[in-house]
């Protein structure tokens, strides 16, 4: 019914847990390389339990390969107009929340890698497709914010590294947050995927499921 897309995932246990969620919801899983692990990784299989054998999963060389093989690209290889309507890019930098989005069967829910999220070039190219999960700001959640900030900078994902230049050049409709409002704290990738996937399923009435 839906497609979960992981852009360069790094932690096998997250991907394994997301694969399990895909199996029990009838969703397909798409993995865009490079991956931070092997698909034979024991941690991935352990998190996915026996569900991994039943998973509909496809791996792609890069973003363009993913677009082409799923009919989301135009003749130039960029995202087509229809493709833009089927893609939901989850990012902390969007203003629109995931519950404000409208989901259709077959849509693609795209999540970035754990250390840095989705590349800003993708977000800037598809501003209307960007959505976020609301979270409290760092000053209300992290007592050790400075320590976390240093770790994020070391991974290339800190506020001193992400300058938001691409977003500011393309954002004429207020689709992105203020660059100075960068947040370190974030939900676990597997939790984020489950939250958005179930909102999408709720919107289409949980077809074939016991909704209670």
TrEMBL record:
Question: What keywords is this UniProt entry annotated with?
Answer: Cytoplasm, Methyltransferase, S-adenosyl-L-methionine, Transferase, tRNA processing
Coiled coil ranges (UniProt) are none
Subcellular location field: Cytoplasm
- Enumerate the catalysed reactions: cytidine(34) in tRNA + S-adenosyl-L-methionine = 2'-O-methylcytidine(34) in tRNA + S-adenosyl-L-homocysteine + H(+); 5-carboxymethylaminomethyluridine(34) in tRNA(Leu) + S-adenosyl-L-methionine = 5-carboxymethylaminomethyl-2'-O-methyluridine(34) in tRNA(Leu) + S-adenosyl-L-homocysteine + H(+)
Q: Which domain of life is it from?
A: Bacteria
E.C. code: 2.1.1.207
* Recorded GO CC terms: cytoplasm
Family listed = Belongs to the class IV-like SAM-binding methyltransferase superfamily. RNA methyltransferase TrmH family. TrmL subfamily.
Q: What does this protein do?
A: Could methylate the ribose at the nucleotide 34 wobble position in tRNA.
In its UniProt entry, what is this protein called?
Putative tRNA (cytidine(34)-2'-O)-methyltransferase
**Organism, per UniProt?**
Parafannyhessea umbonata
